[in-house]
Design brief:
alpha+beta
Length: about 200
Amino acid sequence: MRRRLVYLMKKVGSCLVTAGFGVLVAATHAEATTLSFEDFSGAFVPAGYAGFQWGGGFGDLSWVNAVDGLGTDLGPNENAHTGTHYLVSNAGFLTISDGLFDFNSFWVANAFAAQTVTVRGFLAGNQTYLRTFNVLVDTYSFVTANFLGVDTIKFDPWSSGNLYFDDITVNNSSVPEPASVLLLGSSAAALLARRRRYKGNA
């Protein structure tokens, strides 16, 4: 009877360890999403688009939904990086916020002047990342951020012109819930410890 109990404990413990490892691996390798802004209409990014809150110096009017050839006089070359839709900064600073997410990369250009722009990543109000990048006039540049596990992104105010953004890559499911992983790990550890005790007494 004791041998059978030890065998069952061993099997259950192994399953829990495998499951816990699987959760961690799946969470670490969750797929990123590229936001191309082709799937909504209206003058501004709607609240909750792609699971994020889009704000800034003009509140809900900070991120403008632009279309190729719209003729908004924002610059001589108003085009998306891919597709036909892209975002234009209205003015002031810009923010993107949600629960925990990764801010991976984006494409950006300026309507009128080449300049340097700073983007910061925050978690619970504390700055955890800072990246400064150069923006070209009417030519998109690719910027790699790799801000992992943040809840807010803020683009600082820049000197002049409107920024164009397109193909922003994010991952809002890359961080596992700590309670779930801790529970799996604790259960597996407890079962393995009990298995060793039974094995020692057998």
